[in-house]
Amino acid sequence: MRLGFVTNSYRDDIALATVEQARAYRIAVQRNDIAQTILTEMGFDVIVTSDIEKSYQLLVTNKIDFVIDDKRLIKNMAKELNLPEDQFKFALPVPELFVKGYLAANKDLPEEQYQALLSAYQYISKSAVYSEVLHLN
After folding, report:
1. Rounded to an integer, what is the distance from CA 53 to the centroid of its chain?
2. Residue 111 sits in the same domain as residue 93
3. Which Gene3D superfamilies would you find in this protein's record (predicted)?
4. Is the pLDDT score of 136 beyond 60?
5. Domain shared by 85 and 24, yes or no
6. DSSP one-letter code for 19
7. Strands (DSSP E) along the chain, which ranges?
8. Domain identity same for 133 and 66
9. How far apart are CA 122 and CA 130, in angstroms?
């Protein structure tokens, strides 16, 4: 995931060129999320919410200026909240919050199940939908 600052699309008054500039704004993060840990370590004063939907609700009501999310997920969040797809915009990536995801499994997973998971991943990773979701094209 390539996480960064997300704000309301109509917020033309916000133009971030650097992560440091975001210190002047109110930022919501989820409790025990990587964004809470990293941004706090970087000295940011953050507002902690119970989940991403709560963070977005604060954004929609202008109680905060930014949430932290992946650019590829903001249209879906707008749909979930019954808002226009273009309600939010990705303002700036935060390189310290780039995360590579892994699938974890029990080390005693039977070989047959391991092979089934591997085969399913290989099949899905070659699909157009996979590329579209990850914006590989």
Report:
1. 12
2. no
3. Periplasmic binding protein-like II (3.40.190.10)
4. no
5. yes
6. G
7. 2-8, 27-30, 46-49, 66-70, 88-98
8. no
9. 11
Q: Judging by beta carbons within 10 Å of its beta carbon (0-12, 13-18, 19+), is residue 124 exposed, middle or buried?
A: exposed
For residue 81, give the CATH number of its domain: 3.40.190.10
Q: What is the pLDDT of residue 27?
A: 96
Residue 137: is its pLDDT beyond 70? no
- What range does the domain containing 53 cover? 2-98
Number of domains in the chain: 2
**Whether this model's pTM surpasses 0.85:** no
Q: Which pLDDT band holds residue 116 (cuts at 50, 70, 90)?
A: very high
- Cα–Cα distance, 21 to 94 (Å, whole number): 12
Strand partners, 8: 88
Q: Do 63 and 89 sit in the same domain of this protein? A: yes
